[in-house]
Amino acid sequence: MPMTDEEEENQKKFLGVSKNNRFEESITSRIKIAQRLQKPKLLSDMSSFKAANHGAVFEDFVRWYGNPENPLNEEFNGETARRAIEYRSKLPPDEAKTLALEEASEAIAILMSLRAFWEDTWEEAEPLPAFDQEPLFNPYSTVEMVLHSFETIHPALLVNQVMAVKLTNAKFVLESAATPARKIHSVAQSLVKLKTSIDGALEMLTSDASSAFLQLGPKMPTDDSGPLAFVSTSTVMKCEGVCDAIGELELLLSRALPLLQMLPGEFGLVDTLLQCEEERYHILTHPSERSAFLRAIKRNQTNSSEPPSEAIPAMREYVLRNLDQSNPCQLSARLVPSFDEDQSTSLLMAFTKSSRS
Q1: How many CA atoms lie within 13 A of 151 on its CB side?
Q2: Domain residue ranges of the chain, discontinuous segments joined by +
Q3: Fewer CB atoms near the end CB (10 Å): N or C, the chain?
Q4: Nearest 10 degrees: CA dihedral of 273, 277, 278, 283?
């Protein structure tokens, strides 16, 4: 069933899985705890199956539900397996062979114990549809656990979780805002970069939180010798990188969305204009790009004849520059709009031609 990081760490603690545990620990008590954790859901599923399939036997349920599996297998990660292999490699061949046989016998014993546990639960289950059963989720006890967690959580872990929520929310907001501009290549690349950065930061934040839960005393292993106890330096740097990616995408969207509004459907042209750096020029060589740009200017001029809803500017200035480096010059025109309600003309204040070095 779905579990939070804290619940997962608590379950691992109950099952005796931690970095300080030896691989040769006794499994008897752990398997009993695992069965106790599994029984409510298993009993509910068996009762529902009996209610839906009258006269069904245990083998029918197993064929539908699946064979019982060792619940401790998922708790043995790659690090545990590596330590077990290293431990066996240091033993003499005869002892290593004996240990391997013991582990195989132990695995068989666990599966037999699980089989017996399932059969006993099957006998205990009464036919009862799921909608008539008591819910497995208890909201009152869960709320009490949440309140207790807030009362006892370390501030560093709380900030860790708040940061994870904020980053997830930022990704959702920016992806929603960028929906009209997703076909622009540079915006799509920035979205992928943002998603990758946030997913990596969330994974590192989760790792730090999992390592710090129930281990508030000792310091976490970090990449440097700094005083960070509950977060690694690499996680802080990763989060800073995410903030940079968020700023880059916000700036890109602030430019792309207005351009796309003036040039609807011209995703290639908008992407080309976004690539223009400051004090740089880009020549529109393709006829379709030039036509789209001129249509946008014409559309803007047509709309400008309508009564403006905003304040009228005191002056408009236009500068046309010659790109021919052998004959540098520029043409400047300054226009002051007429404030006469019956006229929409402008007064030409200056019309100059000057060389530009």
Answers
A1: 6
A2: 5-139, 153-272, 308-357
A3: C
A4: -50
